Amino acid sequence: MSKSWNYDRAAKHIDQKIADVEEITIKDYVRDMSLESIPTSTAYRVDGVHMYADIMNLEEMLNITAVEGTECHKRTLRFLDQHYRAVKRILNKVDARRVDFHSQRLHSLFTKPYNTESGAETKRVQRAVATAQLIIDVLAETGDDDEQIPAAKVRIGIDTGLALAVNNGRSGYREPLFLGDPANHAAKLASNNKARGIYLTNNARKAIGLADSDAPEKSALTVTEIKACQDAAKLDVTSDEIVEEWREDLKKNPIGGYQFSRQTPPLRDMDIYSLTPANSKRQEMVSLYADIDGFTAYVADHINEKTDDVVRTLHVIRSELERVVTSDFEGRRVRFIGDCVQALSCDGTAHTTDEEKSVSEATRLAGALRSSFNLAMERLKAEDIETGDLGLAIGFDLGPIAVTRLGAKGYRVRCAIGRSVIESEKRQCACSGVETAIGQAAYEAASIAVQNLFGKSRKTSHLDYNEATEALADDGDATAKQARTEAYAGSAAIIRADERQVQPHSSQKADGSC
User: Fold this and answer.
1) Which H or E run contains 286?
2) Which of 53, 77, 265, 283 is most buried, with most CB under 10 Å away?
3) Is 379 within 8 Å of 317 (Cβ atoms)?
4) CA-wise closest residue to 369 among 311, 472, 289, 423
5) 272-276, Cβ contacts within 8 angstroms, sequence gap of 24 or more
6) pLDDT-based confidence at 410, cuts 50/70/90?
């Protein structure tokens, strides 16, 4: 049976999820409130400082060999693992929260001191800046010449303000997810360009008495400005202490050698929770990012009013996108990153990936995601839920991808790396809320029908499930033709069954008389 999207199935699930969040509770985050395992129907307004540390030489690690083989993946995973362990140790020491470590990008949050203390915001920003410099100093020392692991080149973005904390994840993988301007703006500053340093938004600059900048992304803090924050924050730890403890930890809890095996499709059966360096997965797969376009502005507009509708909208859309990935198309959701879902898909056998079919199915998956997104928006609006002006930007690409979990036992984080992972995110970021884009590698492996659909720009607009399936089938794509044939056969069977139900019983005449 081919993978497929069905209107009735999607509508039923969306309506069920809308019912799940009929009653929403919005709370202000105050002292000693736990943000772990936030109920689906609850959200917190959190006033804090968000810091993103972007490891800028990840792509360089993935390109240390001409061919993207196991060697560059092993080195890259070890590179990320070592630096993640070091930063995790720093955050524990300075009483900050690790929100997520997504490939090269680490998101952390500072909520202390709380607003009950005078000058709390200023102190939080100063603490974040001092911590940022500590991260830069430590990561400069945590390379490994013997393993050909370089030190990390780091760029850090910081913003301050109100964000919305909701539950992130499913099935035991639950942690807070932060939505809104400060998280988004800090992330953009961290990933803006190739210059290293610590960069603050004008909100964060104002909090520590600095003048606004016409271009915050180009205005790295000076040595003097950083020193002032370090003196004010008085962090009770030094880079030498962290590095020494980190080295001792590596001796006691060595990373171990990375060993790869293939995941037999479908990928939805991949148990990411069981993965370790010695039990990692690697094969040719499709990496896909689907981002809710306009969501940050939508949260900012409703952080103090109709916040319950923000929670409803996110929950319904996110749940439905995951269902399409895992149930309709048998893929694997890697994580939610803010309002974005990162997913993997693959078609083939235990031994080989059918690259052309994988790309065809990923194209139809992208169409199904847009169909479900559009339907979710329609059903939410029918319930008078304020949804704002949202869209869905989708990018995907094909290539060798390694999937594992980083860190020592007890605080591991999931990770999927590969050149196609980076490229699929870039393609998604270049899309508007109605566009879908395909990476070069996927385009080259695709059927002629897929290539014709995306054209030379490798981008198309308003691609939903029906258009993707019909256009590909009409152009000779074997996978889409099979899916369409099975859909038609299924529809005919339903019609025949309905006709049988309304036919008169054999003991009756057609007019119902005996």
Assistant:
1) strand 280-293
2) 53
3) no
4) 289
5) 272/332, 272/334, 272/403, 272/405, 272/414, 273/172, 273/173, 273/405, 275/403, 275/404, 275/405, 275/414, 276/404, 276/405, 276/412
6) confident
Q: Is the dihedral of CA 178, 181, 183, 187 positive or negative?
A: positive
User: Per-residue pLDDT tens for 15-24?
Assistant: 999 999 999 9
Q: How far apart are CA 132 and CA 114, in angstroms?
A: 20
Closest CA to 4 of 322, 324, 436: 324
Decide if pLDDT at 116 tops 90: no
Which of 125-139, 186-200, 354-368, 386-400 is predicted least confidently?
A: 186-200
Say yes or no to pLDDT of 405 above 60.
Answer: yes
| DSSP structure class, residue 408 | S
Residue with tokens 């909208």: 313
Task: Say whether the peptide bond before residue 113 is cis (omega within 30 degrees of 0).
Answer: yes
CA–CA gap between residue 459 and residue 181 (Å, rounded): 28
Confidence of residue 146 (pLDDT cuts 50, 70, 90): low
Q: Using an 8 Å Cβ cutoff, are 323 and 13 in contact?
A: yes
Q: CA-to-CA distance for 249 and 256, rounded, in angstroms?
A: 13
Q: What single string gives the DSSP state of each residue in 318-369? A: HHHHHHIIIIIS--EEEEEETTEEEEEE--B-SS-B-HHHHHHHHHHHHHHH
Residue 178 in tokens:
């932060």
| CA pair distance 313, 307, nearest whole angstrom | 10
Contact 385, 309 (CB under 8 A): yes
Among 41, 43, 44, 46, residue whose Cα is nearest residue 24 = 41
Model confidence at 3: pLDDT above 70: yes
Query: How many angstroms separate the CA atoms of 182 and 163, rounded?
Result: 7
Residue type, 374: N
Residue 236: CB atoms within 10 Å = 9
- Residue 498 clears pLDDT 70, i.e. is over it: no
Torsion sign, CA atoms 5, 497, 484, 471: negative
If DSSP codes are grouped into helix, strand and coil, which group holds residue 86?
A: helix
Q: Which residues pair with 216 in a beta bridge?
A: none
> Token pair 């939805």 is at which residue?
268
Give residue 88's identity as a one-letter amino acid code.
K
**Which contiguous run of DSSP H or E holds residue 178?**
strand 175-179
d(CA 201, CA 180): 14
SS3 502: helix
Looking at residue 15, its amino acid is D
Query: Tokens in use for 428?
Result: 């998604």
Q: How many CA atoms lie within 13 A of 427 on its CB side?
A: 30
Q: Please tell me the distance from the alpha carbon of residue 97 to that of residue 114, in angstroms, as a whole number.
A: 14
Which residues, 6 or more positions from 317, have their beta carbon under 8 angstroms from its beta carbon? 292, 373, 376, 377, 390
Strand, helix or coil for residue 390: coil
